[in-house]
Amino acid sequence: MDVMERPRQAAVMAAPTSSPTASVTVSGASSVPGAAPRTTGRLARLVEDIREVVALGLPPDLTAHLVGERLAPHLGAADLLADEHREGDPGRYRQHLLHAEADGGFSVVALVWLPGQSTSVHDHVSWCVTGVHEGEEHERRYRLLPAAGPGGRARLAATGDVVNPRGAVSGFAPPGDIHRVWNGGSRKAVSLHVYGADVSRLGSSVRRVYDLPADR
Prior knowledge:
Belongs to the cysteine dioxygenase family. By secondary structure, the chain is an alpha+beta fold.
């Protein structure tokens, strides 16, 4: 099992944008509204483990770290996801809602990426934990550089590229959570994402999409 990275922090937080409504396109991902999510026995156990961590009321970065520890043992297990939770979309990466806590404290989704599919550069509305269940995900991380002088424009500076194989877990809390994710491999990738917010209500975990110059 890969050790989860400690949360990334940054000194500058971008201004928020309005959240999209539920059941709409989610940052380039198709979201399927309607029926209640199907739950496997293993997924139900994972949700209960996450619930116990969130109930502790710890700071976001520590919550993410502990949730990552609970998520890691389940990644790659054949009985974690129902077959429909592994279905992709030829047009864009796909989000499957797996669980939304009744009080809005957290939600769990599966993201399915076909080869070449990617997100925009974005950050998040809350703490987040991701774990690769199948295939591998590529990630580029950024920090926001403020405008240099009057009339200048903020920029993004890439801080590193990571390839996350099956079983890899990452956790972070805003600010300092700007990244882009894509499937750079030749086969489907599936990852689980746990957010400290109700994405079934918000429609997305994305707080802001960054359309800014980047150094790479």
